[in-house]
Amino acid sequence: MRILVIGSGGREHALCWAIAGSPLADRVYCAPGNAGIAEDAECVPIAATDTAGIVDFCRHNRIDFVVVGPEAPLVAGLVDALESEGIAAFGPTAAAAALEGSKSFMKDFCAREGLPTAAYHRFRDADAARTYVATHGAPVVVKVDGLAAGKGVVVATTSAEANDAVDAALGEGKFGAAGAAIVIEDCLAGEEASFFVLVDGATALPLAAAQDHKRAFDGDTGPNTGGMGAYSPAPCVTPAVEGAVMERIVLPTVRAMARDGRPFKGLLYAGLMLTGEGPKLLEYNVRFGDPECQALIMRLKSDLLPALLAARDGVLRDVDLRWDDEAALCVVMAARGYPDNPSRGTEIRGLAAAETDPKIKIFHAGTRREGSRLIADGGRVLGVTALGTDLAAARARAYAAIGKIDWPEGFYRADIGLRGVPSR
């Protein structure tokens, strides 16, 4: 098969790496890709949001299957456009991708279907939102309605922080059209986890669980980011928790979306809070998480490509995936200034030395080549990912590899995975 992966981040590098290893894949392309992806796939200079360009490339290069990585092209209807041209694609339609594309849609859906989630209110007027904050008090969580690359969520511990978030979205227009509406919801207490399922419209196949780290700095401080690290498995997601999530959240969602004429096919990612009352849904994403995908791919022993094809073709009931018993951990190295104003154009050295260990894989998220030089070209730049007999061993291996990378202009969190290590 001739495969095209859409995107340019660490998640897409992990997908290209896994798909390139499939005996079913004859040729793997990535649009637009990055310097690391170029080692595993042929990069083509087409933006992930260039629907017409992608469709045209698929026609002229006899692409058999398209795997869409990021959320923006999914919400914009790339899968709809491809399938209408007879090009098979992995990912939800625009109608199904509304689960991530609109927080208002997702929260109203949860309320209508009785899914366990935080109480919420929706606002388009800043004064009304501030009045609600004054009445309700803090802590609250303020979320912009549309896509904001993981940066549109503020966990406000004070009313002043909540009002600042309201003003940024509704007053200052910081997030553009994505922030024209906001959701303010109760702040849930517990432990967060990421739960992934492949869905074919009717059947849902659970994948391994993971936990990520959203805040920029150690100790879960600093601004929210797209993710600074992740690990799998997540000790807090026990078989009992998995069963509860499937029964109370995932399967009702799959059934309701099909009933409403929005059948979901692709990867459904449930962001969870494990509370004293059981798991509750924080958010839905409609694609692999980043950097959770990097950790999951390292643990996957089965061929990923047939599973993605089965989800698209509606035959997931025939699929069984095998996972490595070892733990995987991914530490993100980001450019200084991320997430607000990351520096670009600095050189990265030492990756070859860092990858000599066969249980280390460095997934590129924001890099480009200038001759033989590797250049940082994004906010999140590298995902140093390791396997280990347990989480502590994976942590030690990942940080040892980071110690061999020469990039003074980068930074990373030193506490990725600590909360999952029993001897913490």
What is the secondary structure topology, with strand pairs?
Elements: E1 2-7, H1 10-20, E2 27-32, E3 42-43, H2 51-60, E4 65-68, H3 71-75, H4 78-84, E5 88-90, H5 94-101, H6 103-113, E6 120-123, H7 126-136, E7 140-144, E8 153-156, H8 159-171, E9 182-186, E10 191-200, E11 204-206, E12 211-212, E13 215-217, E14 221-224, E15 229-232, H9 239-259, E16 265-275, E17 278-285, H10 292-299, H11 304-313, E18 327-335, E19 347-348, H12 351-354, E20 360-364, E21 367-370, E22 373-376, E23 380-388, H13 391-402, E24 410-411
Strand content: 25-35%
| Oligomer status | single chain
Main sheet specs: 6 strands, antiparallel
Percentage of residues assigned to helices: 25-40%
Sum this structure up briefly.
The chain is of the alpha+beta class and 424 residues long. It has helices at residues 10-20, 51-60, 71-75, 78-84, 94-101, 103-113, 126-136, 159-171, 239-259, 292-299, 304-313, 351-354, 391-402; strands spanning 2-7, 27-32, 42-43, 65-68, 88-90, 120-123, 140-144, 153-156, 182-186, 191-200, 204-206, 211-212, 215-217, 221-224, 229-232, 265-275, 278-285, 327-335, 347-348, 360-364, 367-370, 373-376, 380-388, 410-411.
Keywords:
31% helix; 6-stranded antiparallel β-sheet; Dna Ligase, domain 1; globular; 24 strands; alpha+beta; Rossmann fold; 424 residues; 5-stranded parallel β-sheet; 13 helices; D-amino Acid Aminotransferase, Chain A, domain 1
Describe the structure.
This protein is of the alpha+beta class and 424 residues long. It folds into 4 domains: 2-94, Rossmann fold; 119-186, Dna Ligase, domain 1, CATH 3.30.1490.20; 191-318, D-amino Acid Aminotransferase, Chain A, domain 1; 327-420, Phosphoribosylglycinamide synthetase, C-terminal domain (Glycinamide Ribonucleotide Synthetase, Chain A, domain 4, Alpha-Beta Complex). Helix content is 31%, strand content 28%. It is built from 13 helices and 24 strands. The chain has helices spanning 10-20, 51-60, 71-75, 78-84, 94-101, 103-113, 126-136, 159-171, 239-259, 292-299, 304-313, 351-354, 391-402, and strands spanning 2-7, 27-32, 42-43, 65-68, 88-90, 120-123, 140-144, 153-156, 182-186, 191-200, 204-206, 211-212, 215-217, 221-224, 229-232, 265-275, 278-285, 327-335, 347-348, 360-364, 367-370, 373-376, 380-388, 410-411. The strands form 6 sheets. Strands 12, 15, 18, 20, 23 and 24 form a 6-stranded antiparallel β-sheet that branches. A 5-stranded parallel β-sheet has the order 3-2-1-4-5, sandwiched between helices. A 4-stranded antiparallel β-sheet has the order 6-9-7-8, sandwiched between helices. Strand 21 (367-370) and strand 22 form a beta hairpin. The radius of gyration is 21 Å and the shape is globular. The protein starts with a strand and ends in a 13-residue tail after the last strand. 48% of the residues are buried. The mean pLDDT is 96.
